[in-house]
Amino acid sequence: MIIKKWFNLAAIALLAVCTSAAAATFSPSSYGARGDGVTLDTRAIQAAIDAAAKHGGTVAFKPGTYLSGSIFVKSGVTLQVDKGVTILGSQKISDYTVLPTRIAGIEMRWPAALINIYEQTNAAITGEGTIDGDGKVFWDSYWTLRKTYEPRGLRWASDYDAQRPRLIQVFNSSQVKVGGGLLLRRSGFWTLHICYSTDVTVDGVIIRNNEGGHGPSTDGIDIDSSKNILVQNADISVNDDALCLKAGRDSDGQRVARPTENVVIRNSVIREGAAGVTFGSETAGGFRNVEAYGITVLDKVPVGILFKSAHTRGGFGDNLRLHDFTMKGTPVAIRITMNWNPSYSYARIPDDIKDHPDYWKVLATPVPREKGMAHFHDVKIWNIKATGATTAFEVSGYPEAPLNRFSFENIDIEAQKGGFIFDASNWQFRDVKLAIKEPVHLLTTSDVRGLPAGSTVIKPRPPEVPLKEKSFEEQDKS
């Protein structure tokens, strides 16, 4: 209850700060922007932002389509993208400034996003207009590279070598607001990446990435080693993780050791994506004090609640609270896998490759198994209503790092199969309704308690457990 009150007050205060900053208005048209969708307006938009930063104020656009590469919103500036305005991303990767950041869990140089709040304080991106990445050219370049990489055992490298711009990046910044009805479309890579940042509110964004194709790794909102974050009133259709919490990958993530903590995600609908709410797979820095509620997950989303990691990631999850989820036709209600997608998760440089980027070595740095296990514990899940599911549970940890002290209450799942719960310790169910045709497979009677009588079967672990998760972009590359 305390954290909810804090986030409510923080959202009001942040909105007041952003509103008070709008003392003067600067138009990119005054600096030469054409807004015709053809002329590259990057310099003119940036000039307006820089002027607003000197005097404090708002950058507002005349109606039109503004073709742009990377732009950088400065401290004290509100970028106002009103209805009738589209900021359209350039399809030339050279129009995106290369700078230090974190990508998919490791620190490296990477093209900036279309719109960036990079090492700033008190900045906002708001309005009911459109930010359109026009990203298909970047999706296609990724698939071309991956087709050559995968047969060589380099699936893990393709996401890092095929450099693609995110739509919005909030990096090492504080007191930031994004929202107000923004339509975010066709991102070349992740849509909104919040990394190393504090006191960020995302309120009222519509994300539509599955237009003109299904782009790989077009995540919705990624909260990455950041704290005091509020995400609410999001409406998301993407082709990978929709609402995702991250905290670093393997040795590099453990070196940085920054958790994602004090996060509230609420009152949002997921129409398409890999899962409704996801933790991982970048878990190295850990997750602490996270609450997600009021989430609706629809039938084009394979999983409702997803935890994923790997035995080289490390990290932890502590005091995670997920409640009041409605899943309508979502195939898997709850999936927890600690050995996710091995061809991506475990980097090994083939012996015949001697000349490679430095970050390959970072990715392939060995992590001892005792440091690589993620430890999730004290997780509470309640008020879950799932109808039309294929499987209720797909849960698999490791015997030496069991998923510990999970509690479930008021769970109502209608599914064809109960699924399985392996490597769990001190799991407690209360007030559970399972309408299933096949029972839940357990390994013992002692570690999972409270499931309805007759809904479980005890038998040894099968020889093959579905530990590899087929990524959503692999399911549909159309």
Characterise the protein shown here:
Its EC number is 3.2.1.82. Residues 453-478 are annotated as: Disordered. GO terms for molecular function: exo-poly-alpha-galacturonosidase activity; polygalacturonase activity. This is Exo-poly-alpha-D-galacturonosidase. With 478 residues, the protein is α/β, with parallel strands linked by helices. The chain has a single domain (2-475), classed as Single-stranded right-handed beta-helix, Pectin lyase-like (Pectate Lyase C-like), CATH 2.160.20. The protein is 17% helix and 46% strand. The protein contains 9 helices and 31 strands. It has helices spanning 2-20, 42-55, 136-149, 155-161, 250-256, 342-345, 358-363, 369-372, 472-475; strands at residues 25-26, 36-40, 57-60, 64-68, 71-72, 77-80, 85-89, 98-103, 106-111, 115-118, 121-126, 130-132, 168-171, 174-185, 192-195, 198-208, 221-224, 227-237, 243-246, 260-272, 277-279, 287-300, 303-308, 316-328, 332-337, 375-396, 403-422, 424-425, 427-442, 448-449, 456-458. The strands form 2 sheets. The protein has a 29-stranded parallel sheet that branches. It has a two-stranded antiparallel sheet with strand order 8-9. Helix 3 runs antiparallel to helix 4. The longest helix is centred in the N-terminal third of the chain and has 19 residues, at 2-20. It is globular, with a radius of gyration of 22 Å. It starts with a helix and ends with a helix. Mean pLDDT is 93; it is low at 12-22 and 466-478.
